[in-house]
């Protein structure tokens, strides 16, 4: 139709200007070989097949569209339909809009809600055939079937090269150079039914290709055909506010000041997060002698002892305290009660960095209790004023037993009215405890150095459900999924959500096909904590200096 319109236009011009036939034929050749090919280009994986193709326009961004149903600006493009064009106010042609007939949701399909790529509506089904815009920005990774939840997204780690018909296959889930029939190597029904094989976030690794055959064998032989496999994704999970605040503090300092930025201890107990920050210029240290005088020093989320603060002041360090406010609250109570003459009982593990910081607030009158046997060793008189606090990441099960024993032995003992255990620790353990007894396996994503991650594993194990702690999907042994019907998946308070979503992608797609259920029985109220005060003041000073510098240049 487009060529036909051009021909009609040229005939009209010839009649008015009386151009010779030779010029007319020359203009037709220019239209056919220059104008039309440069207007639109379509590259198919196979000839006469629009299962996956590339569309390039001079007046539109570069779009990569896949799947049997493709929408451009609310316009449905099928292999047997053509794009209708209309003229806009400036006389230029653009893709027109057409009202689509309202379709009922089929049982095996999910439609995106409030989720747009360049004004494109995205449609995909539950088996992982995903359409995306290919701009290297976002793509659909997960959508909940209940409560009309919005889809989760994940950043691509690089912009893919889609030139050519076969392209580069970034997905390790395909397991073969010929297993996928689309430019991306994934998303096609011909060999790789996963929507998640391509594009993991920066710094996070994908499943090794050499494990694919083991995964395939385990997935196909895990359960007899016809038995439903369920993956329960626990919510709340992942970063708590104290962790996200600490990470944001380091990133803000790195963006505002030149690296290196020194951090006392690991900012949070997650190796992947710390590695990412190290790559940006953060240096994690344990001894302040490693920090040059006058440098910036950030305290980790676990808190710090007063002795460290004194050393930092002697070295004229710029101190930025990223301690979790809940940990700081415990420090304040210990310091205050010690001055009032109380004996402090600290429930926690003596080698944990948080307990070390709390203990040194009042080392002469603080006693560490790790278990019930330590309670029996205490020998306080009835006249002693007692006050107990806990490590914020303890197991509620163990802590409640120790507290019960303390109150039986010392009925007059006091504590913080609002409690010491972190809200995130409590909520994650409660949510897991409600569902783990119904499952065959619990997978906890977190680092081996994370206390709250270990307590999630412990909470599941004492309820007779096997549990495993893994840092990334590369550390997971898929052979243990043999005959596993129901899995519960959660993550520690210092674990990035991207790592959890990677597990979801693998387990809900080929070859496992676990059906995803969101377990969100507990609604978490996240506190609104600001960044450290001295960091905010530094930011204000930097803004003020920038404004003054701009004024001086104008003058």
From TrEMBL:
Q: Which GO terms describe its biological process?
A: dimethylallyl diphosphate biosynthetic process; isopentenyl diphosphate biosynthetic process, methylerythritol 4-phosphate pathway
User: Which is an annotated Pfam family here?
Assistant: LYTB
- Transmembrane domains' residue ranges: 21-40
**What's its top-level EC category?**
oxidoreductase
| GO molecular function list | 4 iron, 4 sulfur cluster binding; 4-hydroxy-3-methylbut-2-enyl diphosphate reductase activity; metal ion binding
* Family matches, as InterPro entries: LytB/IspH
Q: Which cofactors is this protein said to need?
A: [4Fe-4S] cluster
Q: Where is the composition biased (Basic residues)?
A: 83-105
> What EC number is given for this enzyme?
1.17.7.4
Task: Alphabetically list the UniProt keywords.
Answer: 4Fe-4S, Iron, Iron-sulfur, Membrane, Metal-binding, Transmembrane, Transmembrane helix
Q: Where is this region: Disordered?
A: 83-108
Q: Which family does it belong to?
A: Belongs to the IspH family.
Alphabetical list of PANTHER family matching this protein: 4-HYDROXY-3-METHYLBUT-2-ENYL DIPHOSPHATE REDUCTASE
Name of this chain's protein: 4-hydroxy-3-methylbut-2-enyl diphosphate reductase
Q: Which organism is it from?
A: Plasmodium gonderi
